[in-house]
């Protein structure tokens, strides 16, 4: 899951780690002057620095200046990065916000909070010292963005990839120098992803360049790629034999850091106890809605039994991608016909299998062209399939998550009118700041909001199986909200979190385990429900403000066009005040 922070399309979980990988060097001297022009110059310097510190994110965005580089994973680079970010932050503090236009003031607050979040991850959360998957899945992402779309001729992209691959073994060497007593679950995730990462380089990367014929280039690639495959194999062995036995650290942020991250990333300063009350109240509402939908399907059975029966109606694993692809056209027609929101012209999203380095922690995601991309237009809806090496029953159990009503709900979230629609607007966002930086409670909140809104507007004509699926996903997000807070501030264990996903969100054990693991690192992944609830509150306040002039389409058009600002800033832009968020 990225539109605008790093790689939602490549899974938000991974992205929140990747922003910690950084470049070196500080910002240039302050520019003279004040007002919008001087601020935009400073903002441009911050953005350019962000491309240097995370070259693969720049590649995704459509900035191809750094295609031959990867992030500098060394501890020295992290220290230099923090100093550079602090220097930029000090310069932003010197900007006179009152001398700026309203649009520029929104961007100023956005940049300030983004840098605060980056500093927290460098200096307090310190994923570079605690998360071994940051390195191995990080270099897989460095390669993935070079093959995921055709932004340049294959020979040119292969030359850039070779340059990157020559830097990758050193990134894994930096991991061995940097990692110090990580949480055991982090090391286990890295081990779980290791074979997929290695196989990705061994099979998928060469296949992406099957049409290249230059013998010298191919020989260079074979050597560089082989070295990465070997380094990843050695890295897995080191993880298993050396790092895992000494992985005894805690993943928990603690209450202060958790609050600081929410304030930096989302501009949410609500006390944690109040947020937990909001989450638990929404869980109860959705559990009642789940029971009501189940009763409509079969009043003689318990809700969990109804879900188990509905979940049997899933396509075979080999047909999942094709079935989902066929579902998208109908969703797009509904959005257009019902005047849900303006839909810009766009190529269809292609449904494909999730990249290997994301499969342990994500089941679906959207990968679209970056807002600055001029050539490539491919858009991919990633779906995770069961491992074909698993026993048949295990594969069938896995596929129960992809029952047909669930496929529709996830397609709403990822494609129409969820993330894909947001991405289509990205190139026309009001500023480059909003094309690069964004709040997860905005973009994930929007996609989660759309799941409920589309059914409320008549999608599937009230068929209760679809409401059951929508509410099951809402329960999943409610439990994320709850366990994120409790695991990081109240001592909840991964096992207790897993059990809560099973009992309170009706999730299969395999999903529950993945979700609990994700929450150890993606600590604030309650932003799905936070965002949805804030958007629903904003919609009602906006309706009250506009009165007879209000329309749902106008609300949606206005919201999406503003870009992925933290929702308190969206409220300020749409209502003139921040007001009550929930």
Polypeptide structure, described:
- This protein has 582 residues and is mainly alpha-helical.
- The chain is 64% helix and 2% strand.
- The protein contains 26 helices and 3 strands.
- It has helices at residues 12-18, 35-53, 55-61, 75-93, 102-125, 127-130, 133-147, 154-165, 168-178, 184-208, 215-243, 255-266, 272-297, 303-310, 320-337, 392-399, 404-414, 419-426, 432-436, 440-456, 464-489, 494-505, 509-521, 527-546, 552-561, 567-575; strands at 350-353, 364-367, 380-383.
- Helix 13 packs across helix 14 (303-310), helix 17 (404-414) crosses helix 20 and helix 21 (464-489) runs antiparallel to helix 22 (494-505).
- The longest helix has 29 residues, at 215-243.
- Residues 1-33 have low confidence and may be disordered.
Write the SSE topology.
Blueprint: H1 12-18, H2 35-53, H3 55-61, H4 75-93, H5 102-125, H6 127-130, H7 133-147, H8 154-165, H9 168-178, H10 184-208, H11 215-243, H12 255-266, H13 272-297, H14 303-310, H15 320-337, E1 350-353, E2 364-367, E3 380-383, H16 392-399, H17 404-414, H18 419-426, H19 432-436, H20 440-456, H21 464-489, H22 494-505, H23 509-521, H24 527-546, H25 552-561, H26 567-575
Parallel strand pairs: 1-3
Antiparallel strand pairs: 2-3
